[in-house]
Amino acid sequence: MKEIVVISGKGGTGKTSITASFAVLGGKNVVVADCDVDAADMHLLLEPDFGIAEAFYSGELAVIDQELCSGCGACAGVCRYDAIPVIDGKYIVDAISCEGCGYCARVCPEKAITNVEQNVGNWYLSKIRTGSSMAHARLKSGADNSGKLVAKVKNEARKTAEQTGRRLILVDGSPGIGCPVVSSLSGASLAVMVTEPTLSGLHDLKRVYNLVHKFGIKAGCIINKADLNQDVLRELRSFLDQEEIVNLAEIPYDDSFTAAITNGRTIVEWDSSLKERISACWASIRQIVGMD
Fold first, then answer.
1. Is 54 helix (H, G, I), strand (E, B) or coil?
2. Interior/surface letters 199-215, b for 16+ CB within 10 angstroms, e for the rest
3. Residue 171, Cβ density class (10 Å: 0-12 exposed, 13-18 middle, ≥19 buried)
4. Locate the 4Fe-4S ferredoxin-type domain: which residues (predicted)?
């Protein structure tokens, strides 16, 4: 089984739109995993049916039993996160600030504090309009532990691929280089980095490539909006050559990209000159991972 992970060093490069286009081109033979759980939006283009939905629990939160609490304040005194303010004369745990370390429970003389697992969001397994399946999720506002949720989404995609006989998983990773991206890259056959010819695009491409390189994952790059800045474009090409990164495609800026998205369709389903270019890019990616 092969896994293609699409990532970007920064947001706004068109990563998800391009990934959704690949999902359409791959059709029923590709299981999709939307691992951008902090800002999941593949569902806007692939129309999942949310057939299976389950709550996801991760991390802990301190809870004070007000019937047992004597109001001594020992818990607030040891909390380095200032997560236990006094509200209306009672010590109350601020769910946003609490890190679930459990120190407050250990010092409470009344044993009034317990740690409980937090429901940080939901994960889903859906049928999508390509005829295939998609594993995806949504974190609650302010929720943490997205790396664990990314791992859950990827595992569900792998199980689905095994059960249905699919040999290719397409992953929409998170922007940046943090824990969710590391989790997205686990087990990847190819990392496809989407960037743009801007100074921030070049800077963040170098950062995310360092991460990919440390994992020893084969890398390719798509330069989106390639005609934005010719000077930076030359720097991007030079960097790709220097690091022996495959330049998969250079896609010029085109208003039809936005027009397709606002109509709930990918660019490869739209009357656009970009359709052939992205289709050729998908064919190259399949060839690199040995699917053709």
1. strand
2. eebbebbeebbebbeee
3. buried
4. 60-88, 89-118
Distance, CA of 113 to CA of 207 (rounded, Å): 43
Structure confidence by residue, pLDDT tens digits, 189-200: 999 999 999 999
This prediction's pTM: 0.89
Cα distance between residue 195 and residue 224, in whole Å: 6
Residue 270 class from Cβ within 10 Å (0-12 exposed, 13-18 middle, 19+ buried)? middle
Distance CA 212, CA 240 (A): 13
Given a contact cutoff of 8 angstroms between Cβ atoms, the answer to whether 157 and 171 are in contact is yes
CA–CA dist 62, 282 (Å, integer): 48
Partners of 135 in the β-ladder: 33, 125
Which letter does DSSP use for residue 267 in this model?
A: G
CA distance 290 to 292: 6
Angle between helix 199-214 and 230-243 (nearest 10) = 10
Nearest to 135 by CA among 118, 147, 152, 121: 152
131/76 Cα distance (integer angstroms)? 54
pLDDT tens for 133-170 read 999 998 887 776 678 899 999 999 999 999 999 999 99
Tokens of 78: 């040891």
